[in-house]
Structure formats: C-alpha cells, structure tokens
Amino acid sequence: MTILLALAAGLALGYLLERGDFCFHSTLRGLIRRPPQLDLFRAYLLTLLIAIPLVQGMIALGWITPWVAPWAWQANLVGGLVFGAGMVIASTCVTGIFYKLGHGMLGTLVGLATWTIGDLLAWRGPLNTLRIALNENPVVTGGMATTLLNLLGSTLGIGLLLVLLAAAALFLWRSPRPQQGDYWTWLPVGVSVGLFTSLVWLLARAGGANYTFGTSRVPTTLYESLLGGGEMGNLWIPVALIALLPGSFIAARTAGTFWARGETSARYSQLAAGGLLMGVGAGISGGCNLGHSLVGVPLLSLGSMTTTLAMLLGVFLTDRAVGLLSHRQPQPDGTSTGAAAPG
Questions:
Q1: Is residue 331 a part of any domain in this protein?
Q2: How distant is the alpha carbon of residue 259 from its chain centre?
Q3: Where, by residue number, does the polypeptide cross the bilayer (predicted)?
Q4: Confidence of residue 226 (pLDDT cuts 50, 70, 90)
Q5: Is residue 327 part of a domain?
Q6: If pLDDT is split at 50, 70 and 90, which confidence band does 178 have?
C-alpha cells in the first residue's frame, strides 16, 4: 500500500511541476534578474498562501503528525548557500533535474549522477564530519524542533503569520494575469501545487510516512540498503521521488512539450558541477528546495525557512559572481566583455 500511494503522489507532483515548469532555480533567480521575472515566485507565494493554513489546520486537528526539520542554523546557512550556488551553476534545482529529465532534457542525467555523488560525500564521505559538526546542538523550543509558532508563541506567531499571508495575498491580487502559453501560468500552478502538497499529507500518513517529499539522503539510503547492508526503512520518499520522472513524462507527452535532446559540452560541465554542489548542500542542510521550501516552510520550520533564505542568498551571490566573471572574460579583440574597444 505504501508503494502504491507514494507512486501516485510522485506521479501527481511530477505532472504538476512539469506543467508549470516549476523550477526553484528560476523562482529565486527571477527575483534578481533585470527586469525581475516574478511569475514563478508568484506561484510559490500562492502555494504557501494555500498550504500554510491547510497544513497547520491538519496539524491542529490531529490529522497529521509530521516530522519537522531541526533548526541547526549553521548547517541551514552553509548547506543553503552551497545549494543556491549549485542551482545557479546548473541552471536548475534538484526537482528540476527530475522533471526536466521526464520531459526530455537528457543532459540532466549528468546532474542526477553528480547529485548522487554529492549526497554520498555529505553522508558517508569526507564531508560527513563537517555535516555532523554543523548539525550539532540544533535550537529546540520546549523540547521540540523550533517553528515560527512555538518560538514566538501562539498569539504573536499567528499574528505575524496573518500579516505575512495578507501581504502576500495583496501582492498576488495586484499581480498581472499572463496569457497562457505552452505551460501553466502562475495562478493555476500555485493553486494546484498548494492544494496538492497540502492534501498529500493524508496520503503520506496512510502510507506510514511522517514527511511527504524530499531528496536529501535518498541516494545514500539506497546505497546502504543495496551495498552496505543498511535498512531501507519506509519507502515513501524514495518511491515518490523516482515517480516524478514518469509523472513529468506523462505531462509532457499529453501537453506536447516533450522534446528529447542532449546538451553542449559546457552545459554538461555546468550540470555536473551544479548537481554535485546541490547534493552536498542538501546533505549538509538536511533538505533541498523540495524538502525545505515546498514541504518544510508550510510546517513553519525555522530550519526550512533559514535554508530557503540561504538558498536565495547563494543564488544572489553566485549570480553576481557569474556576471562579474562574464564581464571580465577576454574577447577575441583583446578587450573584456562590456569594456570599450580602444579607438
């Protein structure tokens, strides 16, 4: 039953991500582009606007008892920064690697392979010591993982949350409604992903899982179970993650957006380097854009919020560094990009 439910959940999420081309790299990097490209950020805000009250309501009613990511702020900051850098270098996120492979971007297989290596380096390789050190002594509140509500108290926490949600709702209300193209616009993407990532908690609970989606430690768990003699544990997360591929493939084939293609040598190198960094970053911070930003933030986990903000900072710093290097790159005439040629 667990495998069937996880398969259904992963297929549905893969379908939704592909139809919205909902890549978290584009979501965050769009904030700092000139001019800003905010459609995917709008979709993410709408997702949170729907998911936060629904998830918190189910917790209050006792329908779900989720695991909440710890607030190990050192690990959240370092891992988020590394993960953000990896997204810029690869021009995609971890979930993008999966759903883009499903709609024909075969070059993401390189990123998938190096992401696996990065995860193993963080959990079983030479970076394991660093990961453990950064995750020591997480901040707890009342003996539990720290969330916005238990840190600030119910009254102040709910009040602040209502103000933030109202501001997000006002921003979205005043946002333009773009015309439909090959992919869904931010409005149907945000509504569908917000509703689905909330209600899928009920499927996860029926499947015996206390978390819905994530990528961190999945390659390591598979390695340990296949080669190291470790226990596989609940199969929900690895099955749901793998099911993103056929879900996105079905979406792309039915919508006519499937396009099988390879990449240039430069893109293969970028995907390899970025995938490695994302695997390491997710391992250190205990989660990726899927596990922290789409699942953990609606739980109001301070660990997930800190990691998401660190990802944004990593995207900003790496984007600026890439821009600076491109500006200074020598041209065939001996000048730098953007520099005036001698008269």
A1: no
A2: 23
A3: 43-65, 77-99, 151-173, 185-204, 235-259, 271-292, 298-318
A4: confident
A5: no
A6: confident
